[in-house]
Amino acid sequence: MAEIDNLTLLEESSNKTPETQIDGNLLIAQSLFRAGVRVMFGVVGIPVTSLANRAVSLGIRFIAFHNEQSAGYAASAYGYLTGSPGILLTVSGPGCVHGLAGLSNSTINCWPMVMISGSCDQKDIGKGDFQELDQIQAVKPFVKYSIKVTDIKHIPEDVKTVLNSSVFGRPGACYLDVPTDVLHQTVTESVANELLTVSDQNQILEGTPLANLEVEKAVSLLRNAKRPLIVFGKGAAFARVEDSLKRLVERTGIPFLPTPMGKGLLPDTHELAATAARSLAIGLCDVAVVVGARLNWLLHFGEPPKWSEDVKFILIDVAKEEVELRKPCVGLVGDAKRVLDRINLEIKDDPFCLGRTHPWIQAIMKKAKENVLRMEVQLAKDVVPFNFLTPMRIIRDAILAQGSPAPILVSEGANTMDVGRAVLVQAEPRTRLDAGTWGTMGVGLGYCIAAAVASPDRLVVAVEGDSGFGFSAMEVETLVRYQLSVVVIVFNNGGVYGGDRRNPEEIGGPYKDDPAPTSFVPGAAYHTLIEAFGGKGYLVGTPEELKSALAESFFARKPTVINVTIDPYAGSESGRMQHKN
């Protein structure tokens, strides 16, 4: 009888269906999906192709690029636009190295991003394995946090850690290294679910609470200031402070100055906007509230002679280290929106407002009006061959005619970006992306793709110099492949800053007949590049041609390149940074 029972148990065991096995590729994809990731950017290959396919099968959109550099720029911009980490997937070795551009760009601009790279088998480290590199060491200067997954069972927790680290405190880039052997390891489905459940239960750390006395001191400084100013940057845009900022400005009547990517949090056309009176505003203000902007080169380090020696700074920043570095009169560490809400609450109990007749407001408005009128006189002229102002005015008017939701503007290039910053108008938050804190050229197409994916209801318009466009021009194929609503406008002046600008004494030597280091092929047909992939291209050189191309392309909302012929001597070398070159 016992023998029969044993045979029955053996038979039942042999008939039992083996539990499904989950490999490292699928477990990473599941961990990302459970954390809310819905988009990834990257370039696939050994050993991460299966990871990309698994992610897509779960409902994560994978945007495949030609180059990890552009994909990394896309991931960094996506993190800024959405507030959630942008994800970059790369192969090992050189793929990881190419991705460093995106990592560094993300960290320097304080945008959340995670790069995930495959790496060689752990048992073969040091033997010269395929694409072997100490990737943890390679990424170290550019990330907040990095970790190598050493076993499949660590995947859910390690994925959650890098995602959380990228957004906690000052946002930035993080890195996850996944060896090939870990991608191929398996666990049962029940074990995978248990690992995912445990990871889900871990909590994100809370920020530091604000001190009431510091808020009161900040409000007291503002209340007693004779020439107060509010400065805000892309950190404020990332924190979604627009409503809180509007309440503060309209309640107190204090003029404001956005940094380039802070533009649009309040409309550029707001009567208290001091952008057109920038030098006067920062040179004479006695108290400056700086929200989500660092006192770096973009703001002249907060030092004389651009700023008054006696100016008192109220610095609002998410990073304690930044406040300690700058040593402001008052430092408020925390999420910018939360801090502004506290300031608004403190003012509400004892309100004050400068009023439009206040001498400071009158001075700002007068100078801004004078400078705008002076610019409009120049913009009113139709100059052909095109200078930078004529086509920029036509583009400005075409963008404004789109109404709301406003197009997202992507801008890069020396003269193109500098002129565009002064001419193009931002009326809505997070609708301007440019070279940023590092002045990075080559971000354009990556940013365009990120913007189109993050905000599919908006048109994306890139206004680029031909040099900036050239860094990532092949990604126009990516625009066509995914049919993204992007119009790329190339200001074609034949080179970096435009043509050959050398002085006679700089021309000599055995290669003096070579093109100048700043020169490209004259009259390059950039518009035909996108046509090779099925997109639409335009070549324009007159106001009528440009207006027609913009009207057609903005209406169609299909991948387009408009090649705008610019006088090669219209701009200046290095744009507004001539003193650095």
TrEMBL record:
EC number assigned by the record: 4.1.2.63
Top-tier EC class: lyase
Single GO term (MF): magnesium ion binding
TM annotation in the entry: none
Cofactor: thiamine diphosphate
Keyword NAD: no
Thiamine pyrophosphate enzyme TPP-binding domain mapped to chain residues: 413-564
Any one cellular-component term (Gene Ontology): peroxisome
GO biological process: fatty acid alpha-oxidation
One Pfam entry name: TPP_enzyme_C
Disulfide bond is among the record's keywords: no
Keywords: Lyase, Magnesium, Metal-binding, Thiamine pyrophosphate
UniProt catalytic activity: an (R)-2-hydroxy-long-chain-fatty acyl-CoA = a long-chain fatty aldehyde + formyl-CoA; a 2-hydroxy-3-methyl fatty acyl-CoA = a 2-methyl-branched fatty aldehyde + formyl-CoA
Family: Belongs to the TPP enzyme family.
Protein name: 2-hydroxyacyl-CoA lyase
